[in-house]
Design goal:
about 300 residues; mainly beta; Methylamine Dehydrogenase, Chain H; 24 strands; globular
Length: about 300
Amino acid sequence: MLWGGVAAVGVAAIVIFALVRLAGGSDGATDAGQPANNAAPGSGTSGELSQIKTNDFHSMAVSPTDPNLILYGHHGGVLRSTDGGRTWSKTSLTGETDDAMGMGISGAEPNVVYAAGHDTFFKSTDDGQTWKSLKPDLPGRDIHGMAVAPDKAGRLYANVVRYGFYRSEDGGETWRKAGTGAYPADVIQVSASNGDVVYVASVQGGVLRSDDAGGTFKGTGRLAGSVLTVAASATDPNTVYAGTDSGLFASTDGGRTWSARSVPGNGEVMVSAVSPTKPLDLTVVAVQADHAGHVFRSVDGGATWGPS
C-alpha cells in the first residue's frame, strides 16, 4: 500500500499513469467535452449503450430522482445523458481545464451536483446543465476524488493531494480534515453511502472503507490489478463495486470479499456509478483496445448487461 509517507512526486506519477495511459494515440479522439456515440443505442457488443472518446475517463453520477439522467466527468468538463447513457450532450462545463475527477449528487438536494478535480471545484443547481466555479477553503486545489453524502444535505468529501481526506458539512463553504490516521497517498476516487460510510479507491492499496465519515479507514479484501474506480450503493452501504485494470469486481459484504464480474469486451473499468435507489443498477465505462470508453449498464449487479 501507498500510505502518507510516500513521496508526492511518485504518487502523482502513478495516478497520472492510471488516468491517461489509454488516452494517448486514440484514433479520432474528440475535443474535450465532445460526445462521440459511434454505436447505435443497444446495438453494440452485448447491449453496449454508447462510446465516449474523451481524452481521459474520470467520474460518473446518476440522478436520485431520474435513473436515466447520468453525468459523466473528464478532464474537459461534464457530459450529460437523459436516456440512460445512450446519447450524450455538452453542459456548460466544457473547457480543456474543467477537470471533473470526482462528482456527486445528494438525495437530500437532488438538483445540486458538485464536481472537482485538478485545481477545479464546480457546483450546479440545475441537474448538471450549467455550472459555476467555487473556491473552497481547502489547503490545496488538486482534488483526486470527491463525493457527496447521499443522505445528508451539505455533506461533501474530498481527497486533497498531499493533504489528505477532508469533509464539509455546509455544501463546501468550509472544510476540516476528517482524520489524522494513516491514509493512502494515491487515492484516486471517493464514493459515499448512507450513514457515515465512505469508500476510497487507492491505485495500489485497493479499496478502503470508513465507517466514521472519513475519520479512519481500513482495507478491504484483495483485488486483482490496480484499482481505478469505486462506486457504493447509496441505500446499501455493503454493496460496492470496484473497477480495475483487470476488470470489474462486486461485493455485497462491505468489501470483505469480492467477486469478478465480466464486462462485455473486457477492458479496464475506469468509471462506475450505482443508481442511488437500486443497488444492483450499475453503469460502467470500460476502456478497451480502441481507446474508447464503452458504456454498459446492468440492472442485476453486473451478472448481465444490456439496455434497461
